[in-house]
Recover the amino acids of this structure.
């Protein structure tokens, strides 16, 4: 059984990685972007695919522009923190439609491996987390340089809360209202009201954290820890529920993405 499972896993990875038009470059990237654990290869595959979606690039360009501006003078921490919120808003489509780059055949391969629905979403969430980390790394480094480690840690905290809250909503939307996305294009086809609701819900916890960071109250640290834990709990509940929904609606989702 273990040997058959391993063979299926190898076959799946070979099929998804073997579609690259530049195998030499692909192997070089694979050698650098290594992730631990049994899902490592699939996480690498997901982040490589998300990089081919144009929606993730404007956020990076915004961070680069702000970072260049920081070279000529320090920006207030609240400006960098607001930029982090905006970057997540720009990532709305991949976060709320993490299955959109898949085909029906790929979803079936996940089931054959076998991977539970929760595992599939976790892999995609980790791939998105890598993309977000790449978008924000330069901004965090600028924060360390201009404002010190404490302010940089605060911005990492804001990003973590945003990631958890956006993914919590995004997983639910991904399994209930998926739409097809294409490589090297901006995503289109999602419901605008759903996107607005997702941005509002996903950003609300981080806005609370920003308010608490500015308040300098004696109970701010406790309240911030509470927001972080609630965001983590919401994400875990969403991951479990959305994973079960993916298993039950796999064929329906496959038809919507075909």
């Amino acid at each position: 059984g273990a040997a058959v499972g391993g063979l299926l896993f190898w076959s799946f990875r070979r099929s998804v990685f073997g579609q690259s038009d530049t195998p030499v470059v692909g192997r070089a990237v694979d050698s650098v972007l290594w992730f631990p654990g049994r899902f490592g290869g699939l996480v690498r595959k997901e982040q490589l695919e998300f990089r081919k979606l144009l929606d993730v690039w404007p956020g990076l360009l915004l961070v680069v522009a702000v970072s260049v501006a920081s070279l000529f003078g320090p920006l207030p921490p609240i400006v960098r923190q607001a930029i982090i919120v905006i970057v997540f808003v720009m990532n709305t489509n991949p976060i709320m439609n993490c299955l959109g780059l898949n085909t029906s055949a790929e979803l079936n391969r996940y089931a054959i491996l076998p991977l539970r629905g929760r595992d599939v979403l976790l892999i995609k969430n980790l791939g998105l987390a890598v993309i977000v980390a790449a978008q924000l790394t330069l901004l965090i480094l600028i924060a360390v340089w201009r404002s010190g480690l404490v302010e940089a840690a605060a911005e990492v905290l804001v990003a973590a809360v945003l990631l958890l809250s956006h993914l919590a909503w995004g997983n639910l939307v991904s399994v209930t209202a998926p739409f097809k996305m294409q490589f090297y294009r901006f995503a289109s086809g999602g419901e605008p009201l759903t996107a607005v609701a997702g941005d509002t819900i996903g950003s609300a916890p981080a806005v609370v954290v920003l308010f608490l960071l500015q308040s300098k109250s004696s109970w701010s640290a406790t309240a911030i820890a509470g927001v972080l834990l609630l965001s983590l709990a919401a994400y875990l509940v969403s991951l479990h529920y959305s994973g079960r929904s993916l298993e039950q609606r796999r064929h329906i989702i496959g038809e919507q993405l075909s």
